[in-house]
Every structure is written in structure tokens, then in C-alpha cells.
Design a protein that fits this description.
The protein is α/β, with parallel strands linked by helices and about 300 residues long. It contains 12 helices and 12 strands. Strands 1, 2, 3, 4, 5, 8, 9, 10, 11 and 12 form a 10-stranded parallel beta sheet that branches.
Length: about 300
Amino acid sequence: MVSIKNCGLMLEPQEGMPIEEIVDWARYAERSGYGYMFRSDHLLPIDGKKDQDSPEAWVSLGILAAKTKNIKFGPLVTPIGYRNPALLARMACNVQNYSHGRLMLGVGAGWYADEYRAFGYEFPKFPVRFEQFIEALDIIKPLTEGKPVDFQGKHFKVNARCYPKNKIHLIVGGRHVSIIPAVEKYADEWNIADATIPETKKLLQKLGGGRKIEVSRMIPFYIAENQRKLEKKLKQKSIFSQVFGTPLTADLLRERGVLCGTVDEFTSQVEDLSKAGIKKFYFQILNPQDKEMVSLLTSTLR
């Protein structure tokens, strides 16, 4: 079984979650022995409840830097479309310095059109967003390594320098094959989401061996002590029931890349992903009220 030190909790703050609760989750992760704590960076809840609020991601990361001591943390992932890359790099360097090197910077091209438009940002088609993402990486990587950047691109123009005390660990998120050259060029870590084991194997087979790149997986999960309790959890209202419809089944969720099963089944699924090449797991908490399931996850990983 994968070590809990190579695992993290990934929080989706929904339904008006206060910053105090985000801090409580981070302290729980640190106390329990997890190596990492991440949160999403969204302007709107991903469950479509637009009348709900949650703390702004980077404000909350600054608070986590002050309220935790050892755990590494960061956004998974920050979209480039509403985060100017040079300013993002500067923000990251400040949080990195204040937390004594614990920030991990996850970046992505963005996917949630509603949140862009709600806050006045354009949401171009994927080829343009991908161009923006590559330019942003050209800017972010050297700035977070303390190097000056004079960049004149199609989407961004930058002449700046940042001053991190330590190089920032850069995570590139994405699972399309087109992201692989960017991963090989820029990333310290590649985070793959929503991929089945066969898809994961195919992607990793295309990853070159030029330098060491950590491979991680952000993954939602259902775990229960027995089949009866698992089926009860699957009947509860969730983001998955809204997206996939009901009834939810374990087989349906597994087909969509979700870890789902009893303790033994869950353990087997994690081991299969580990054998496929995933070495770090960030377990996505989609229902923060279900602390019992997270406790079972923790005891299983231990």
C-alpha cells in the first residue's frame, strides 16, 4: 500500500465553507501524517450552486501558510485564464517564502466556462487556452526559480523578476496527450486526473525519460467498511449523482476513474494505479461533511 506521506487531501470548498473549516482540514491532514494538502481554485462552486461562496483560493493559501507547520500545500490547480502568470508567480514566491518552502504550485489551462464569464474573463476555445497555458509556463517557471524574465508573447508580455528563497515545486495538471511536451519541459510533477488505468498507462508510456518527473493523481473516492455501507453512500446526493444521474453504482464510478469500494477493494485499486506508474495520490474530498469516510481513508492508508 502507498505510504500516507506520499498522499494528500484535496479539498473542494463548497456550500459556503468558512476559512476556519479549511484550516481545520489542513491541520487534520498534518496531524494524521499526510504529506500534502491541496484546495481547488474556482470562482464558482463546481456543483452549480452559484448562490454559495467559499474563501478565495490564494487568500486561503496564505492563511494555511500561517496556520500549519510542516505539511506541504497549494492549489490543484490554478487556472491561467484568470491568474496573470507573472503576478501568480509573485504571489507564489511570497507564500513560498512565508511558509519556509512548503508551497507546491499546481497550474492548469482551466475548464469551467461559467466562472470565467461570471467574473468578466473571456473563455476561449481549448486551442487558445492551451497557447495561453504554454506561454504562462514560459513565464512562471523561471520566475519561480528566481530568474529574470523578459517575455514578449502572443498573449502575455512580461519584464519582471521574483525572489523566492527556494525553487518552487511546479505541478502541471492535465491528461490530454498534447500536454506531455509541456510536462517534459516545465514540470517537476505531472498530475493526472480522470483517467482510467489503461489511459494512465498509455499516457505514461509517452512520457520521455530525459529527467525525473513525479507523477501524481488527483482522484475522488468512495470507501466503506462493507458493501452495505458502500451502497448507502452511493445513494446519497453528490456531485456525481448530479453529473452521472442515479442510481450510482460502484462499477460506473470505477469506469469514470473514481476509486470506489470496500477497504480491500479500495486498497487493490490504489495498488493497481501505483503499479501503472502513479506514485503520489491526492484524494479529492467532494463532501467535507462526510468526515467518517475520510477517517476510514486515513486508517486504511496507515
